[in-house]
Amino acid sequence: MEDSMHNIKLKTERLLLRSLTVADANEVFEWVSDERVSRYMVYTTYTSINQVREWLAFVEKDTSTYHFGFERLSDGKLIGSGDIGTAEKNGYWGFGYNLCYDCWGKGYATEAAKAMIEFARKNLGATHFSSSHAEPNIASGHVMEKCGLHFVGYGEFKKLDGSCKMKSADYEGVF
Ligand SMILES: CC(C)(COP(=O)(O)OP(=O)(O)OC[C@H]1O[C@@H](n2cnc3c(N)ncnc32)[C@H](O)[C@@H]1OP(=O)(O)O)[C@@H](O)C(=O)NCCC(=O)NCCS
Predict the structure, then answer these.
(1) Which Gene Ontology molecular-function terms are recorded (predicted)?
(2) Which residues form the pocket of ligand 1, taking CB atoms under 6 Å from any ligand atom?
(3) Does domain 2-174 bear CATH number 3.40.630.30?
């Protein structure tokens, strides 16, 4: 199970979703060190490649969540990453995504999120999905809606280090 879970490849029109490894650290650093990208993510902005290596070493072993790097098919560049896994809320699958700043606004997040949802539906028996975004992060809400989820209410967005707390907009979908 562990090996198969880390070797999944999902192809979309413009992207290859594939597992992340420590060897991706330099490319991943490009967006996780960018405050424009990390602002509404739960992680703290990364300041060194070593921190990214540590996170990727965790990802390589993590069996609780499916992590994917989003590789652009046209040039092989890693442009972002995301994950999908069973959420805290019983029976729901949660997902997330982030992209390097230069790649925003081109539909990539929607393309990748739809592929992760389809993978979970077809291969993992997932039917109930949920996700949420910090309230001002409207683009992410659009991605969730384009994936077929709908707004269900407000909750709380918290960075893992406690440095930021604000309202979240919560979404669900049953497919
Ligand atoms: C959120 C994020 C993943 C969106 O990625 P993307 O590839 O640009 O998303 P898409 O192009 O698939 O769709 C974005 C949608 O939001 C819309 N949008 C973009 N910026 C917007 C803004 N400031 N206000 C309102 N809508 C906006 C786009 O028009 C598009 O909707 P449309 O197709 O209906 O026009 C990207 O901005 C990102 O990586 N942000 C930083 C990390 C992050 O916040 N991740 C989500 C955490 S919940």
Answers:
(1) acyltransferase activity, transferring groups other than amino-acyl groups
(2) 37, 40-41, 96-99, 104-110, 133, 137-140, 142-143
(3) yes
